[in-house]
Amino acid sequence: MDTSVFRLDGVTKRYGDLVALDNASLEAGANEYISFLGPSGSGKTTLLRVIAGFEAPEAGRVFFNGRDITNLPAHERGIGFVFQNFALFPHLTVIQNVGFGLTHGKSGLSAAEIERRSLEMIELVGLSGMEGRGVDQISGGQRQRVALARTLTMHPKLVLLDEPLGALDANLRSRMRTELRAIRERLGVTFVHVTGSENEALAMGDRVVVLDRGRIIQTGTPGEVYDSPASPDVAHFLNRFNLFDGNLSGGRFNGVFGSVPVPRSVRSDRDVYAVRYDRMRALPVSADAAGPAIKARFVASEYLGSSMMNFFEAEDGHVIEMEHHLSLGTPQTFEARQDYLLTWNPEQAIVFGREASR
Amino acid sequence: MESRILKPALGLYVALFVLFLYGPFVVLTIISFQQGPEGGPQFPIIEWSTYWYRHIFGLTPPSRIAPLPFGEALLRSLVLAFMTMVVSTVLGVMSAQAFRRKFKGSGVVFYLIVLGMMVPGVLTGLGTSLLANNVIGIERHWYTTAFATHVAYTFPFAFLVMLAILNRFDASVEEASWSLGVDPWTTFRKVTFPLIFPGVLSAMLFAFTLSLDEFPRTLFASGRDQTLPLAIYGTFSVEIHPNIFAFGVLTTLFSFALLSVYGLLMAMSVRRARKMAMQEDIA
Amino acid sequence: MSSQISIQKRQSKTTRWLLAPGIIWMSLFLVVPILMIVYVSFWTQTTFNISPDPTLASWKQFFSSDTYTGSLWTTVRIWLIVLACTFVVGYPTALFVGLFVKSKTLSTVLLVICVIPFWTSFLIRVLAWRPMLGKEGAINIVLLKLGIIQQPIEVLLFTELSVIIGMTQIYCVFMVGPIAFMLSRIDRNIIEAARDLGAGFGRIFWKIIFPLSLPGVVVGAIFVSVMVLGEFATSGALSGRKVNLLGNIIVTQVGSLKWAMASVVGVILTVVMGIVIAGFLRIVDLKREL
After folding, report:
1. Do A53 and C10 touch (CB under 8 A)?
2. Which SMART domains does its entry note (chain A) (predicted)?
C-alpha cells in the first residue's frame, strides 16, 4: 500500500538538447515540509512544475495520493501552487482572489458558503479587513498571504511553493518563514518549497532535497545534509564549507595544506577536502600548528548578528572563510593584510575521494 | 545628435509632411461649404453655404442633382463591418492563443494567415467572384462572398495584434487558476480574457475600420447591393458635386465619435492593465 | 492508466482546434480563390460566354497586345516610383518621430496625427486631390498668389504625376509607421557611445541608425508594394483613364465579363507580387520582427 502523498519515478524532462530533469525519483509522506535546494538551472523549478502538471515529463511517472497523475491535466490534480511573483488575479479583489477556485472550480458550494470559507482563510493568514481591496492596493507581504490563502482554501493535500519568499525584503522574509511553517503545521498539509537559498532550505525543511543539473544528488534531514553532504557539489551549495582540491591516496589527503591522514572518506568522482567554516581556527603566522595548516592573508570580516565571518586569501588566491559563533565568546580581531596560519582538527573534516574507505 | 541644425530642420520637415498629409482634407472641407446647387467641386468658392450638407439629408428643395444614394449602403457597410469585426477578432484570438505553444508547421500557418493582408484586394476579390460566379455558380452578396473576403483580409490584422499582446502575457496567472482546480476554458473566460481585453478592443477596431472602408474586394465579391465604398465609387463615373465632400467630412466626424468611444473603453480597461503591470514589477 | 492521453497530445489537440477555423477560412476564401484565378486563366472565352475547355488563347492575347504588356510595365514603373517617393518622404518623418522626439507623448501624438486621415474614406481622399491639383486647384491658386508661377501648371491633374502624388500621400504613412517603430527600439546608448568615439552624424546614420531601421523599411515597403501593385481606384480617378495599371485592366475585363483575360492579368499580378514579397522577405524575417 502506498502511504506517500506523492512519488516521482524516474522523471525526465528535456528542453531541446537541454536536460532539465534527469531520472529524478523522490517520495514524500503526508504532513511533511520538503525543501528543494539547488542553483539556478538545477531543475528544481521544472520538477515543481512537473508535479503541478504545468509541464509534461518525457519519461517517468508522477504519483499523487497513490494515483498515477502523469497524464492528468493541472486543474484535475488538486495540488496547490504558490508562485514567486504571486500571480494574483489583478482584476479581482482580495476576497475574489481567495474564493476564485471555489467559485469557478467544481466545488458546488453556495456563494454564502464560499464567502464564509474565504473569510476564514483570510483571517488565518492575518488579512482580515482587507478582503474588499484590489490586489494592487496591498503590500508585497500581504500579496504573498493572499497567494497562500487562495491556494489553501482549496484544501490541497500538497502545496508547491516556487521561491515564495524571493520577492520579499529580508525582514519580511524571515517573518514569513515562521508563518509558513506555523500555517502548514496547523493545516497538516505537505509543503514542497523550492529555494535557491541554503539558509531557507535548512531552516524550513523537515527534509532537504538537493538538485544539481537536473539530478537529485542528496535527500535527507537538514542535519544530515549539513553534517554529511553526499558530494563536493552538495557541500558547495550549502555554502558552509571551505573546499580544497588535492588527491586522496593511501589513507592520506595531499593538498595545499600538506599531507593529512584521513580516517574515513565519502566516495566521489573527484578528490575534495571540505572543512566547515566554523571548524576553522586562526593562529599567528609564527605559531606551530599540530595538524594541517595553511598560510593566508586576512582580507575582511562581516558581522552577521549571531556570528562573525572572516575572509582570508591563501597564496594561490583561494578565499578561505572562517565563522565564529558569537555565543562562544568574543571573536578574535585580525589585522588587515596580515598573514595568519589557518588550521583545523582533521577529525572534523569531510573528505571526498575516488578511493573511499566507507 | 547635431540637434542645433538637424533637429529643427527635421521638425520643419515633419510640419511640411503633415501639411502634405492634410492638404487634401483641408481643401475637401473648404469645398464642402461651396454654394449650391450651381457651385461645383472646385475653386473659387462662389459663396459659403451649408447647402451640400443639407442636400445629403434631403433638406434642400429638389434640384437636378439627385441626393447621394448612400443611406442603405451605409447601413450595409456598418452591418458588414460589425460581422467582420466579430468573426475576425474571434479567429484572431483563437489563432494567437494557439501560437503561444510551439507546434510543427507554425511557420506555414503564420504565413498562411499573414497572406491575407499581403495579397492585393483585386486578386482576392477576383478569385472569390470567379469561384462563386463561374465555378460553383452561386450568387454573390455583400453578406456572403464579400463578407468572406473581408474576414480573410482583417483576420491577419486581428491575429497580429493579439499575437503581440499574448507574447507579453504572463502565463503564471493562468497556471495559478488551473492549480486552483479551474478548467482551462473557465480560466480563459475569467482570467485571460479580462486581462487581454484592451488588445481585443484594438483588434476589433482594426477589423471594423478596415472592413468599413474596404473597396477592391467588395467591388468584385459583392452582388447588386452596394456597400458604402461602392456607392462612392459609383459617383466617380458621373459628375462629382461637393455633396460627396460634405459626406466625407461627416463620415470623418463620425469616425472620431467612434474613436472616442474606443478611447473611453480603452481608458476603462487600462486601469486593469496597470494593475497587471504593477504585479509584474514585483517579479 | 497508460491508455490515458498524455498531456502533450491533449495540448496539441487543443492547438489544432484553435487553429482549424482560421486555417479553413483562409484556405477556402484566400488560397482557393487565388488557385481559381490560375485555373480560369486557361478557360476558353467567347464573346458572351466562358467554358472550362483548356486553352492558352487568353495568355497569347495578353502577350501579343501592347495595351496589356504596356500596363504591366506601367504598373512596375509606378510601383517603383511610388515606393521610392514614400521612402524619401517618409523616412525623415520617421527619423524625427522615432529617434529625435524624446517625449513619448509627443511621438504618440505625431503618430496619431499621421493616422487620422485614414478616418476619411479612401475613395474620398483620392477624390480630394482633384480640387487640389486641377488647373484652378488649390496648388495653382497658392503658387499664383505667391508669384512663383505666372501661368497655372496643367500637368498636375489627369497625368501620371497626379497618380504618383496621390498614391504617395495615401501610402506614405505605411512607410513612416514601421520605420519609426524600429528606430524607437534603437538603444540610445549605442549612438551616444559612437559619438563619444568621435563619429559624426552622417557616419552614425549610415553605420548604425540606417542598418537598424532596415527591417522597418522592408516591412513598410511590403505594405506599400502590396497596396500600390493592386491599385486601380487612384489611377482611375486621378489619371483620367490615361494610366492603366494591371488592376485597371482586371476591372475593365470583369466589367465586360471577360473572366479569362481578367484571370490572366490576375495571375501575372500574383507572380509580380510573389517575386516582390519573396524578395523583401529574404532581407527580413517577418515573424522574427514581431
Report:
1. no
2. AAA (SM00382)
CB contact B190 to C (< 8 Å):
no
- Is B13–C14 a contact, with Cβ atoms under 8 angstroms apart? no
Q: State in Å, rounded, how far the first CA of chain B is from the last one.
A: 36
Beta carbons of B282 and A106 less than 8 Å apart: no
Cβ atoms < 10 Å from Cβ of A239: 11
B60 domain residue, yes or no: yes
The closest of C77, C38, C32, C74 to C59, measured between CA atoms, is C38
Cβ atoms C128, C139 nearer than 8 A:
no
The fold for domain A6-227 equals Rossmann fold (3.40.50)
* A:B CB pairs within 8 Å: 104
Q: Structure pTM?
A: 0.86
Q: Would you call the peptide bond into A232 cis, given omega within 30 degrees of 0 as the criterion? A: no
Q: Which residues of A touch B (CB under 8 A)?
A: 52-54, 73-81, 83-91, 100-101, 104-107, 134-136, 140, 143, 147, 150-151, 154, 167
- pLDDT score of A1: 39
Q: What is the pLDDT of residues A219-246, one digit of tens each?
A: 999 888 888 888 888 888 888 899 998 8
Instruction: Provide the pLDDT for residue B64.
Output: 77
Q: Using alpha carbons, select from C264, C186, C33 the residue that is nearest to residue B121.
A: C33
Q: Where are the domains of chain C?
A: 66-283
Same domain as B52, residue B182: no
The reply to whether residue A56 touches residue C8, judged by beta carbons under 8 angstroms, is yes
* Closest chain C C-alpha to B47 CA, distance in angstroms: 16
Question: How does residue C1 score in pLDDT terms, banded at 50, 70 and 90?
Answer: very low
ipTM over 0.90: no
Q: DSSP letters along A244-284, please?
A: EE-EEETTEEEETTEEEE-S--EE-SS-EEEEEGGG-EEEE
Question: How are beta strands A247-249 and A190-195 bridged, if at all?
Answer: unpaired
B177, B272, B282 member nearest A91 (Cβ): B272
Q: Which fold has domain C66-283?
A: MetI-like fold (1.10.3720)
User: Using the beta-carbon criterion (under 8 Å), do B215 and C233 form an inter-chain contact?
Assistant: yes
